[in-house]
Specification:
It comes from Paeniglutamicibacter psychrophenolicus. The protein is an alpha/beta fold. The protein is 41% helix and 15% strand. It is elongated, with a radius of gyration of 26 Å.
Length: 345
């Protein structure tokens, strides 16, 4: 609240007295949680409040009601573009529903994750949204047992309320695209095996390969982290031809991995889009701005964010695990149909 000319802060009681109404009537007129009342009395109260310089203490008001209209968001790191974009989408979705979102980072360590979650809970948040869940993560189970309102986003443990893209469909779309272009020598770089995203995208890729009766060497199925450096190492591993030949195409389970593969290919003198087809995942903004624009699987982050918020603020509605459909965005990196491409050296 802002001070009056005498230095005192204007209270709700002051507004009620100046408006000639009860404190409860003034409180209802100034409650900004829903549609503002259009009654003459409410309009008069708001006009008086504005003239007096009154500002409602929404935090204290919410505490009296037992909620703070605040949600905590836990991500591994904000240096990861997808996590930063996810948080921004959650901020927008929360604001549209009258909530405020605050973020904490935890890395991939379970103990750091628990400490960060406790820090957010100490701020009296109404619920937690976790973008950190591992398949072996105990934190969602801990929340379920203690009835802590929470939702998992982008990842799922298969039990807690979750909002994510359909990663198996996404992996399928990526590899099916490469097969439809005529490729049969396809490597797949997956995410970490402790994440639902890594497992589901690999499952989708395998389904597409199985449908086409393609047997992929085990050396071309590489589990890695989700960083550019992981893509660079894994890219070298599959492109150096350790089994006597190299793949003509690569599906990388996120765009950072794909950019690492681009760097590895450049280092080995292999031209992406001509000699090597490449598809990434997530379609981060940089993907379309690369010198060879990256084909990628786009994930509807705003829809996922809205689902995650709704799982907390409107609990009990089915389904508790909500998957949004991804879309393949083909660009130059996946190249021309295989029959018109130069032969792989």
């Amino acid at each position: 609240m802002e001070p009056t000319a005498s230095g005192a802060q204007v209270t709700l009681k002051d507004v009620a007295a100046a408006s000639g109404v009860s404190i409860s009537t003034a409180s209802r007129a100034l409650d900004d949680r829903g549609n503002a009342s259009g009654s003459a009395a409410a309009i008069h109260v708001r006009k008086v409040a504005e003239e007096l310089g009154y500002r409602r203490n929404s935090f204290a008001s919410n505490l009296r009601r037992g909620d703070t209209r605040t949600l905590g968001v836990l991500v591994p790191r904000l240096s990861d573009t997808v996590m930063a974009l996810m948080f921004e989408a959650l901020e927008r979705a929360a604001a549209a529903r009258g909530y405020f979102a605050m973020v904490a980072t935890s890395g991939d360590d379970p103990e750091d994750e628990r400490r960060a979650a406790e820090t957010l809970l100490d701020r009296n948040v109404d619920g937690l949204i976790l973008a950190t869940a591992r398949l072996d993560d105990e934190l969602p189970r801990y929340f379920r047992e203690r009835n802590v309102a929470h939702a998992l986003v982008l990842r799922t443990d298969g039990v807690s309320p979750s909002a994510l893209g359909d990663d198996e469909v996404g992996g399928y779309l990526a590899v099916r695209h490469l097969i439809d272009l005529g490729h049969r020598d396809i490597a797949v770089l997956t995410g970490p095996s402790f994440t639902s995203t890594g497992i589901a995208r690999l499952a989708g890729a395998r389904r597409a390969l199985d449908e086409a009766a393609i047997e992929t060497p085990a050396e071309w199925l590489v589990a890695a982290g989700y960083g550019i450096e992981n893509g660079f190492s894994a890219g070298h591993e599959v492109l150096e031809g350790g089994i006597g030949r190299r793949p003509s195409a690569v599906f990388a389970a996120n765009d950072n991995l794909a950019m690492g593969v681009i760097a590895a290919a450049h280092h080995l003198g292999i031209e992406v889009g001509e000699e090597l087809a490449l598809v990434g995942y997530n379609d981060i903004p940089l993907s379309s701005r690369l010198s060879t624009p990256l084909s990628s699987v786009r994930v509807p982050l705003d829809q996922i964010a809205g689902n995650a918020i709704d799982l907390i603020v409107n609990p009990g509605k089915e389904p508790q695990i909500r998957k949004s459909m991804p879309t393949l965005i083909p660009r130059a990196s996946s190249g021309a149909p295989r029959h018109s491409m130069p032969q792989v050296r």
